[in-house]
Design goal:
By secondary structure, the chain is an alpha+beta fold. It has 7 helices and 12 strands. The strands form 3 sheets. It has a 4-stranded antiparallel β-sheet with strand order 1-8-3-6. A 4-stranded antiparallel β-sheet has the order 2-7-4-5. The longest helix has 26 residues.
């Protein structure tokens, strides 16, 4: 439970209040590829990601999928359905073995009512997410597929010894789902980037060797 105290929702709350709040949160472990939330289900819980990673996604009857977000250790999800009392607006699947803290709806509403700082921290988090989502939509909406891929690669990569490395193992379909394109289009662009010496793939990781071209 010590990990839960580090979540921003509990920032600046009195220790006794945090202890009481987290005493009502129960933890569960989930294997990789476990469906945590399904779009359209009733909203009953807020989830704290203690270990692992999950993807938030939308899909349709044909199986086409769009990844909305990737949450990692230290982040939480599931608050929108609780705030608005609406069904889940997206699905959530574990990308690796994960451990989650689960806060029930009744406790969530009690915390909002009883702890102003809890509510304030939630508003700040939602505001940050909205700003980030707006910027992402702006960038992706005004860009062609290549530039969406380039921006995604830069956002996902970290600089190590004068190159940028994407540690997350991405398939062509994963990338297509993130940027809203076909797998075939992604494959062609990646092939050209490899041929130009811009990227390489080693052990599932994508390595960016030099600044990606402005256009394709």
């Amino acid at each position: 439970m010590i990990q839960l105290r580090t979540f921003e929702l509990f920032s600046h709350l009195e220790k006794e209040d945090v202890d009481l709040i987290i005493s009502r949160i129960h933890c569960r472990s989930f294997p990789k590829k476990t469906q945590i939330v399904t779009e359209g289900d009733d909203s009953h819980s807020l989830y704290f990601l203690l270990e692992g990673r999950v993807k938030v996604y939308l899909d349709d009857d044909t199986g086409k999928e769009i990844i909305v977000n990737i949450h990692e250790k230290g982040e939480f999800f599931g608050e929108l359905g609780l705030i608005k009392s609406i069904p889940r607006t997206a699905s959530v699947l574990t990308l690796e073995d994960s451990r989650l803290g689960i806060m029930q709806e009744a406790d969530f509403r009690r915390n909002l009512a009883n702890y102003p700082l809890f509510a304030s921290n939630l508003i700040n988090n939602l505001s940050t997410r909205l700003i980030e989502a707006t910027e992402t939509i702006r960038k992706l909406g005004l860009m062609d597929v290549y530039r969406r891929i380039a921006v995604t690669f830069i956002n996902l990569s970290e600089e190590v010894d004068d190159v940028r490395i994407i540690n997350e193992k991405l398939t062509q379909q994963n990338i297509a789902n993130r940027v809203g394109a076909s797998r075939e289009m992604v494959a062609r662009i990646l092939k050209d980037l490899r041929a130009g010496g811009y990227i390489s793939q080693e052990e599932g990781k994508i390595i960016i060797h030099k600044t990606l071209p402005h256009s394709w």
